[in-house]
TrEMBL record:
GO cellular component: plasma membrane
Topological category with respect to the lipid bilayer: Multi-pass membrane protein
Family: Belongs to the binding-protein-dependent transport system permease family.
UniProt organism field: Actinomadura viridis
Lineage, top ranks: Bacteria, Bacillati, Actinomycetota, Actinomycetes, Streptosporangiales
Name recorded for this polypeptide: NitT/TauT family transport system permease protein
This protein's UniProt keywords: Cell membrane, Membrane, Transmembrane, Transmembrane helix, Transport
Length: 267
């Protein structure tokens, strides 16, 4: 509260509370809406579990199993997360490298894009067994699956982002005799950050999905293996526990990418 003086008389200037009220009015629905949605989903889940216990187990049973054996779920999550991070890093890294090459040598796009589309169009479940035959029962097949599934989205968005530069800004750089390196790091990269982070959010979820799907065959470790084994023995509680852990992992990675975007992209 500020104090002003008029002819020796002190008067308190009260700040206008309207902006704060408007900000609070916008914040409350953002917090309340997902809470209400998840509450309704929980109620619907419990209703289905009561009517059809062979379809959905009670939420209390799933949460109780997660609390009873956290080491079991965490150890399998580590296997899945390792494959997702290694494969995702490889797929994203190769995609970024090819995107830079294609942007600076457009004639290579006619060779790179058909191969990228072919990789993207190939069903992951179809090639996972072939990769196990080729590379054995180690981590390599799962890493390759994740790399393949994250490669295409990052490649397309990286090429689009690196090309989405302001023509006037590009003309200014050229008029100043800027080198290709300066144009790339000072203009193309900043212009592409929105595309890259948007694709990164997609890639982290796809990496977890690809790792889980690849674990459906050829291994007895990982969240995907837990889902297959629990489905075989009709252990719905353990199956949904593994699904919840995978969903929480994906949400955490998605949140980390969003946080990095806020820290890096400030415009």
């Amino acid at each position: 509260m500020a104090v002003r003086t008029f002819d020796g008389v002190q008067a308190a200037a009260v700040e206008n509370p309207a902006p704060r009220r408007r900000a609070a009015a916008r914040t409350v629905p953002r917090i309340l809406a997902p809470v209400v949605l998840f509450a309704l989903l929980g109620i619907g889940w419990q209703w289905v579990a009561a009517k059809q216990p062979s379809v959905l187990p009670p939420l209390g049973g799933v949460l109780g199993d997660l609390a009873a054996q956290p080491g079991f779920y965490l150890s399998n999550l580590r296997e899945t997360l390792a494959s997702a991070l290694i494969g995702g890093t490889a797929g994203i890294g190769v995609a970024l490298l090819l995107a830079v090459i294609v942007v600076h040598a457009p004639w290579l796009g006619s060779a790179v894009m058909p191969a990228a589309v072919l990789i993207h169009a190939t069903p992951i479940l179809a090639i996972a067994p072939a990769l196990i035959v080729a590379f054995g029962f180690g981590r390599t097949p799962h890493v390759i699956v994740v790399a393949l599934i994250t490669f295409f989205p990052m490649l397309i968005n990286a090429i689009t982002g690196l090309r989405a530069v302001d023509p006037q800004a590009l003309e200014v750089f050229r008029s100043m005799a800027a080198s290709r390196r300066d144009v790339f790091f000072r203009l193309r990269v900043p212009s592409s950050l929105g595309y890259l982070f948007s694709s990164g959010k997609t890639c982290v979820t796809l990496a977890v999905i690809g790792a889980i799907v690849s674990e459906f065959t050829g291994t007895d470790k990982g969240i995907g293996a837990v889902i297959v084994q629990s489905t075989t023995y009709l252990n719905l509680v353990q199956m949904w526990g593994a699904i919840f852990v995978a969903a929480l992992c994906s949400l955490t990675l998605l949140g980390l990418v969003g946080l990095a975007e806020r820290l890096v992209v400030r415009w």
